[in-house]
Write a structure and sequence with these properties.
The complex is a heterodimer.
Chain A (H helix, E strand, L loop, with lengths): L2 H33 L7 H16 L14 H23 L4 H21 L1 H4 L17 H28 L1 H11 L1 H6 L4 H27 L10 H14 L4 H22 L7 H22 L10 H4 L10
Chain B lengths: L2 H22 L10 E7 L9 H17 L9 E7 L4 H14 L4 E4 L3 H15 L2 E4 L16 E3 L4 H14 L4 E7 L2 H17 L2 E8 L7 H7 L6 E5 L5 H11 L6 E3 L7 H6 L5 E6 L6 H12 L9 H18 L7 H9 L4 E3 L4 H9 L4 E5 L2 E2 L12 E7 L2 E8 L3
Parallel strand pairs in B: 1-2, 1-3, 3-4, 4-5, 6-7, 6-8, 8-9, 9-10, 11-12
Antiparallel strand pairs in B: 10-14, 12-13, 14-15
Helix pairs in contact in B: 2-11, 3-4, 5-6, 11-12
The chains are: A mainly alpha, B alpha/beta.
């Protein structure tokens, strides 16, 4: 394999790695919004909590932040999910009864509080400077093996999550969640404990966002306050879910891959312009990203892979509508 | 197959085709003749207004190489820029494109410390690509496990803090309060000031971060004024929170004597607060008596650049030094750039100044050692790839800042 081909392969692997990490978070948001109708605008907060939790537990000792536990990576990831989940439980207990737009405002605010705490508690996180001594598995290998191994790990996690979430959605639990999303009053009248179920979805979704944060920090081997800014976390994950197909797990995954590809690869187009245009080209790229999002959202208003109701899924109920 | 599935798979195919088209549109077919140098920086994002002059300065270095006969025996040097957006995601992504798609020989950049660290850790170091940052001042970069690949031509802000501490001590001040803008820059400079000042025997009566762009800092100032400090050290931006902090400190009678870092060297301060404002600041400056700076300033003005813009001399030096390193290494093998970069900047060779590409090529061809003395002065990399700083004192005279003596940390 010549160098140019290898380079292109490495680029695609790097792209896929980040897209797969975003897909984990998009699955979490899908559980929140797509399935249960919770407007969680605090993705950045859970992402940050997960990233820092896993980093602190797995990084070597340092005088600059709480660390030195040197625990294996899987422990860090599980802890990232647990801590995100616990924080989501506390937040959810206070806010889950808010209706959609109020929940959005509440979660935005809480995510900013979490981010500010992580930015300012220097003994814990090294504050604004961030942490660079994060272990990454397989990093000692060649770039190709390292990228492939990390991608294999992320895709395996994604697959397990997908299978579990699909099973959950096709179970009575999934139908109950969708019922709550579509009409809380009806679900309550049918004897369902709406608040408890909403809290359940909120916590589970937030755990996946925390896991995404952990995967991200170990992949880049860097975490700092600017890596958790809402534009590249909350906003981007929302766009991925909406463009991919809210309510559809495969849509969430596809959305992550398509949107991250657009986000990254548009630069390969705009940089074809002459060098004098280098600065303008970067803004043109942002414009192009916006335009492509518009096209996707206008053309596929329910997402690239829209949600299918249980009848179409062939899970229960009447036979497929064959056309 | 039922219809929804058909439609779905068509859409998947469409999305895949779109993704494929975007990737394939990249410059996959490497042109053997051109030599590629990467450039990454936050063209969009929070420091967007600072970036175009830095990029222009790097482009100037590349233009000079091409005007004076090209690189590696007449090949064309091209600068490929990527937008790293001042965050870790952007840094990784820009690094990925430059290192893998464009197969650049080396990279100038990044600018924000977070983007530099992310690109270094996830792309440049695993792939053995040299990065030379013109603007990242975070002390974290010093300690990266970088196999001698990550360099910078701007001093770490740890050094300016030491110089500032010595200056404050020599001014006879023994008790000061410190407030800094709560970001990477403010934290780094204030932290190193504090360590150095306390090591000298000074007392920090209060140490408080503040968020930029607030309307009032009176609460913070009231706290800072406790404990009888003789002066307030403000590590912030004159055009941002720095002006408000000093204005409110004067109005409230909290402080009347101020010390600042380079971010406070902004003429808006004497203009707004009066020419007799008692403020002394430190700023890294190009080495005095360095003809390279004038040569660069002249050339930069000719292409329409403003030499007073921040980090332009460094942006030029990073690109020119890397071009020299590529020429020295004799090829585009990434693995040899690091050693060559050290070779062309080490003291003792024929001195090469900004723009002297032809002379450098001739000297290298004659088997001579060369030493690039850049627009920002001699580039004496230490073992970590850092350069020592050169920091001057500035005082307000006649409504503007006037450069005083070069300061030492000892």
């Amino acid at each position: 394999m010549d160098q140019a081909t290898l380079g292109l392969l490495l680029y695609v692997l790097g792209l896929a790695n980040l897209a797969a990490i975003y897909a984990v978070m998009a699955l979490g948001l899908n559980l929140n919004w797509g399935v249960t109708g919770l407007f969680n605008a605090g993705v950045a907060g859970f992402f940050a909590v997960g990233a820092y939790t896993s980093v602190i537990l797995t990084a070597p000792d340092s005088p600059h932040f709480l660390g030195g536990f040197d625990l294996p990576l899987p422990v860090g990831m599980v802890a990232a999910m647990l801590v995100s989940g616990l924080i989501a439980l506390a937040i959810g207990a206070a806010t889950i009864r808010l209706r959609s737009d109020y929940l959005a405002i509440g979660t935005i605010g809480i995510a900013e509080i979490l981010r500010l705490v992580l930015k300012n508690e220097e003994w814990l996180t090294n504050g604004v400077r961030g942490i660079t001594t994060i272990p990454r598995p397989f990093v000692a290998e060649t770039a190709l093996v390292s990228e492939l191994s990390y991608l294999a790990m992320t895709l395996a996690i994604l697959l397990v999550l997908y299978v579990l979430l699909e099973a959950a959605l096709n179970s009575p639990w999934g139908r109950m969640m969708r019922a709550i999303r579509d009409s809380e009053t009806t679900a309550a009248a049918a004897g369902k404990n709406v608040d408890a179920r909403r809290l359940e979805a909120f916590v589970l979704g937030s755990m996946l966002m925390g896991l995404g944060g952990a995967l991200f920090a170990h992949y880049l081997r860097y975490i700092g306050p600017e890596a958790t800014e809402p534009v590249t976390t909350t906003f981007l994950v929302w766009v991925m879910l909406i463009a991919g197909g809210s309510g559809n797990n495969r849509g969430a995954i596809l959305g992550a891959f398509v949107i991250w590809t657009i986000w990254s690869a548009t630069e390969l187009l705009t940089r074809q312009l002459p060098p004098e245009w280098a600065v303008r080209a970067s803004y043109l790229r942002i414009f192009l990203i916006g335009l492509l999002l518009q096209v996707v959202l206008q053309r596929y208003s329910r997402g690239l892979l829209p949600e299918r109701n249980p009848a179409e899924r062939g899970a229960t109920g009447p036979q497929d509508r064959t056309l | 197959m039922n219809r929804p599935t058909m439609a779905a798979s068509r859409r998947v195919a469409l999305a895949a085709a779109l993704a494929g088209a975007l990737v394939a549109a990249g410059p996959a077919a490497a042109q053997q003749q051109e030599v590629r140098l990467g450039w990454m920086g936050a063209i969009t994002g929070p420091i967007a207004q600072l970036v175009p002059p830095i990029l222009r300065a790097s482009q100037l270095a590349v233009e000079q190489v091409n005007e004076q006969g090209g690189i590696l025996g007449g090949r064309r040097l091209t600068l490929i820029s990527a937008d790293s957006q001042c965050n870790a995601q952007g840094g990784n992504d820009a690094g990925n494109k430059l290192v893998n798609v464009d197969q650049v020989v080396a990279i100038v950049g990044g600018l924000c410390s977070g983007e530099t660290i992310a690109a270094a850790n996830s792309q440049a170091i695993p792939n053995g690509v040299v990065m030379v940052s013109p603007a990242s001042t975070s002390p974290l970069i010093t300690g990266l496990q970088d196999r001698d690949l990550i360099f910078r031509v701007v001093p770490s802000d740890a050094y300016q803090g030491q110089v500032m501490a010595r200056m404050v001590w020599n001014m006879g001040l023994r008790r000061v309060a410190v407030t800094h803008v709560n970001n990477d820059y403010g934290r780094g400079l204030a932290g190193s000031f504090r360590t150095a000042y306390e090591a000298l025997g000074g007392t920090i009566t209060a140490f408080a971060p503040h968020e930029d762009q607030r309307a009032s800092y009176r609460t913070e100032l009231a706290t800072l004024a406790r404990g009888n400090p003789e002066a307030l050290v403000v590590i912030a931006y004159g055009g941002g929170s720095g002006l408000t902090v000093i204005r409110q400190a004067l109005e409230g009678g909290f402080f009347n004597r101020f010390i600042g870092g380079d971010g406070m060297r902004d003429d808006v301060l004497p203009r707004e607060l009066g020419a007799n404002l008692n403020l002394v600041v430190t700023q890294p400056v190009p080495r005095e008596g360095n003809p390279g700076l004038e040569i660069f300033n002249e050339a930069f003005r000719r292409v329409g650049g403003n030499p007073a813009s921040i980090f332009v001399a460094q942006g030029y030096d990073a690109a020119f030094a890397l071009a020299l390193a590529i020429q020295h290494s004799g090829g585009t093998d990434r693995a040899r750039i690091s050693a060559s970069l050290r070779a062309v900047t080490a003291p003792g060779g024929t001195v090469i100044r900004p723009g002297q590409w032809r002379e450098a090529v001739a000297a290298l061809a004659a088997g001579q050692r060369i030493t690039y003395v850049g627009a920002s002065g001699p580039i004496e990399f230490d073992a970590n790839g850092d350069v020592p700083g050169n920091v001057a004192q500035f005082t307000i005279q006649g409504g503007t800042f006037v450069q005083g003596p070069i300061l030492s940390a000892n």
